[in-house]
């Protein structure tokens, strides 16, 4: 089914059909408020960038990846600039053998083609061919490699307040000690608990937040040098090196891929 609108009954109550696939595009930014439903959901990008926010963390979804959200996990999503993508809704019972926790998956060509084929199905039950394609989609979600594009959020209310403030303004240059004073927690406790609750040091977590924000700025067409300076890096080369080490390609190459995948504008 093309477009991102789906009958709420299928998402919240029905287990038939086992897989519902929507695909569509939007030239404007679009977002959804936090919500949850009975079906699991796979968010995928075909063009542009999507961010998915859950209670456990924030995931970036470039056009090479998808984010899996199991049933009943509270989540919201937002596109950044022109966006084309897909959503796969998986019936609750069919999620039993799928990953039990949210995660970012590297999309295979097989999954992408199966999803695009399924997006053309009419609403309703699946025929024998449809059941086979649905099985391929489920197998791919089950077995695709997981990539670390997520940013886990701490549970402690004071640390979560700091994390959300940094996500709102990744360029904030306050020191760990200044953040600790702002949140009424000792610097030592902040440092220790951040590692315990997120798996990252405070410095590494903030750096990752900046890099995920950089993905959104690249999708919006912001020049690389401006991104580096706005996010507080000492030089553009420092930012470029960190970006390449994290995402496997320099920011200019990522931006070029977005440009090449964008539809031509009418004259």
TrEMBL record:
Spell out the SMART domains in the cross-references: HTH_ARAC
The family database entries (InterPro entries) matched by this protein are listed as: AraC-bd, Homeodomain-like_sf, HTH_AraC, HTH_AraC-typ_CS, RmlC_Cupin_sf, Tscrpt_reg_AraC-type_HTH
Domain HTH araC/xylS-type: from-to ranges: 160-257
Q: Which Pfam families match?
A: AraC_binding, HTH_18
**Transcription keyword on record:** yes
Q: Which UniProt keywords apply?
A: Activator, DNA-binding, Transcription, Transcription regulation
Q: Does the keyword DNA-binding apply?
A: yes
Q: Which PANTHER family match?
A: HTH-TYPE TRANSCRIPTIONAL REGULATOR NIMR, TRANSCRIPTIONAL REGULATOR-RELATED
Q: What is the protein name for this chain?
A: Helix-turn-helix transcriptional regulator
Species: Massilia agri
Species classification: Bacteria, Pseudomonadati, Pseudomonadota, Betaproteobacteria, Burkholderiales
């Amino acid at each position: 089914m093309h477009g991102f609108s789906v009958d709420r009954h299928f998402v919240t109550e029905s287990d038939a059909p086992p897989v519902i696939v929507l695909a569509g595009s939007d030239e404007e930014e679009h977002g959804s408020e936090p919500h949850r439903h009975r079906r699991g959901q796979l968010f995928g990008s075909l063009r542009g960038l999507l961010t998915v926010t859950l209670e456990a963390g924030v995931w970036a979804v470039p056009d090479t990846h998808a984010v899996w959200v199991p049933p009943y996990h509270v989540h919201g999503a937002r596109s950044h600039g022109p966006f084309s993508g897909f959503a796969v809704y998986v019936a609750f019972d069919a999620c039993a053998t799928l990953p039990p926790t949210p995660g970012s998956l590297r999309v295979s060509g097989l999954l992408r083609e199966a999803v695009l084929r399924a997006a053309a199905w009419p609403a309703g039950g699946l025929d024998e061919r449809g059941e086979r394609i649905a099985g391929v989609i489920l197998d791919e979600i089950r077995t695709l490699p997981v990539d670390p594009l997520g940013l886990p959020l701490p549970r402690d209310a004071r640390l979560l307040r700091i994390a959300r403030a940094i996500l709102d303004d990744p360029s904030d240059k306050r020191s760990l000690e200044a953040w600790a004073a702002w949140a009424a927690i000792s610097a030592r406790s902040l440092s220790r608990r951040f590692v315990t609750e997120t798996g990252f040091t405070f410095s590494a977590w903030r750096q990752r937040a900046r890099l995920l924000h950089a993905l959104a700025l690249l999708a919006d067409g912001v020049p690389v040098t401006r991104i580096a300076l706005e996010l507080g890096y000492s030089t553009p080369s420092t930012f470029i090196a960190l970006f390449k080490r994290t995402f496997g390609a320099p920011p200019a190459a990522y931006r070029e891929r977005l440009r090449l995948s964008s539809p031509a504008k009418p004259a």
